[in-house]
Amino acid sequence: MDKFTLYLCHSIMKRKHYLTIFPLMLNIALAQRPAWPTDASRMLSSNFGEFRDTHFHMGLDIKTKETEGHPVFAVTDGFISRMVTNYTGYGKALYLTTETNHIAVYGHLSRFSSILEKVLRNNQIINQSYFVNEYFSDFEFPVKQGDIIGYTGNTGGSFGPHLHFEYRDGKDQPLNPLLYGFELPDRFSPMLKQLAVIPLEKGTMINGSSLPQVFPLYRDKTGFFHFPDTINCQGTVGIAIQMEDQIQGSPHKYQIYRAELWVDEILHYTVQYDSLNYNQSFINEARQFGLSRLNLGGFHQFYHLDSHPYSSVQNKKLNGLITLKSGYHTVEIKAWDNANNSSTTKGIIFAHPPITMNIQEINRSNQEITFGIHPGFNSVPLKSIACYSFTPFGFQNGKIDLTKEISTGEDLRFRLPLKQITNRILQFVGVNNQGAFSYPVHWAEGVTSHDILSIDVDLKLSHLDKGIILQVETDAYTDASMSVFLQGESVFTPIWVNQVQPTVYLSEVLSPALFNGVQIIEVLLKDQVERKIQFNIAPKLATTENSVYVFSKDQMCSIRTTKNSVYDSTILWIDMVEKSAPIKSGVHISKVYQLQPFDILLKDSIKIGVRFSNQYNYEDGLGLYYYNQKEEEWTFLPTRVQWNRGVLTSTISSLDAITIIQDTIPPSVTSAFPAHGGHYDKRDLMNFNAFIKDDLSGIEPDEKHIAMYLDGERLYASYQPVEKELSARLDSPLRTGRHELSIYVEDRAGHHTKKPINFSVY
């Protein structure tokens, strides 16, 4: 039996004897207050429940002064129950089971305590791998509160030195550490920044528009937040809010702890970050996916759709959907942080359909025009008018202040200087005395309507949570009438559109089922003549009961869904992209295809395929790539090449732009220590490292694709995928003489590089 094994056995016997003689100490341990896990700092860069790309943040990220090597401590008495070393995730991590059966997790460590490092190395030798996932019983590695069990680092999927700390229950599910004795001083209340109102059924309008509306929130001197004005709604809507917490002395923004939505003093929805569930980390049930997808920010979604699963932070008894009777209603949102600081915003929603109004010229002089605006038939008198100026090509100049309003009965009269409005299109939006918004009304002063045969017309489809909106845009102003029709073999459906800007027309929210069988969407412009513009958008209706194929217009790109791909009935189509993000490396093989609708949330992945020309048959390096919006780069998808069909296939979990790129350049080793041809004192050569690089497909972070050899024997090297650093530590100094370090790297396209580095030790 070697000394290390004898030491472990002796330690185990001592600890078992200790617990037998002093059973009362266990009761004390159960009640002891946990220690902070490191002395590096008590500052956080991230807290529990923050939104990440595809998941919640499951713990605390503790700042370590941007350096590594700070001790981490056992937060309570207990035992080391698990150790993990990996290239991704938490990298080098320890799991401590406390005597209350909680589990403390320490991630991204640089190294363990000396005893645990020896255990790690023994397991790596046994496994013949750097990767270790080892579990221990309660008597193998007991610890006392305050014992050093490891040191902070930057391993795994870490973007800089820090300690990732989690606190879990006995079932290994994350708890909010700030509720379990790891709290921090915090006197700042949450910030409530923006409010979004989302249409959730056919016919829903928000301030006269069928699109989601985002409103800034304003804080007064007392710290109370206010809506900018009364919001006018018709139909069923959902609320989303952008909010964040702050802690004094920190520049970072944090997740709130709890929030509530109240409508007319009745609780409609709650979200609370007590705990999370690794098996149900449905972040997009708590985050408003469409707004996030459009880069408008991280909004908490305060409603739940029946077809979606519940996240662990939601109250399953409340769905938050708001369908209001005509009249005024109070909406209040309250938010708390982990230190019980709170913030509130409150406002009014007026439930009423949009109103109509008419505008006419009352008088004109050489300097100004007097306008009269009055509400439509049987409407309440107008309270105010907002006026916006646009160029003849639809670009907004800004808002025009109407400072000389004159009220005459139900009419509002005002004067505008001609020099301010000539060659401009004016848009008027009215609000009546009750708070109902009007549909926009347009006035073209000195602007000639463009010939309908000469203007360009574009069609866009937006897919919201519960329906579709058609948007027609012209590249110049026309006063021609506009109609839209859905057409197919057995389909002919007229669609009403409203002119919301001089060159933009919107439909109401439409059911996806309307598009079943549609082959063409036709736009009809009519003045003295008629012009028909046909868009060959042939969307397919995907439901939870069918599987559909969708093809691009050129038949070169396809989507295949399953019954599990969508949450609810959804239309899918593929756009051929004329102008896309540049391909910075490799050979661009195919067109770029945008899978649509871009802003809809998929329940599960879909199958995709893109065909390639015969000239690329059996060439190396072909792969499917999607455009990563966050990183602003083309990202490799695991690709299957079907040479007999001339198609590349993969799966994707979001509707992104895809294309085929050929990776022609193998990865490289950019620098290494020791250096080729170097001479070193053996005492200075205990740590080896190398930095690797690949410009396109990337490198899979596993031992099949990355390896480091010393004199022909594989080292148990770690790999940091963010910094792309491969490193290894020797157990003992090298013998004097010549040695060879060899680095092997293979990219996802199948290209590999093997770089030998010869050096001498004296």
Could you describe the 3D structure shown?
The protein contains 6 helices and 62 strands. It is mostly beta strands. It has 6 domains: 3-179, Distorted Sandwich (Glucose Permease (Domain IIA)), CATH 2.70.70.10; 191-351, no CATH class; 357-445, Sandwich (Immunoglobulin-like); 464-533, Immunoglobulin-like (Sandwich), CATH 2.60.40; 540-662, Chondroitinase Ac, Chain A, domain 3; 668-761, Sandwich (Immunoglobulin-like), CATH 2.60.40.1220. The strands form 12 sheets. Strands 1, 2, 4, 5, 6, 8, 9, 11 and 12 form a 9-stranded antiparallel beta sheet that branches. Strands 14, 16, 17, 18, 20, 21, 24 and 25 form an 8-stranded mixed beta sheet that branches. Strands 42, 45, 46, 47, 49, 50 and 53 form a 7-stranded antiparallel beta sheet that branches. A hairpin with a 2-residue loop joins β34 (457-464) and β35. Mean pLDDT is 91; it is low at 1-30.
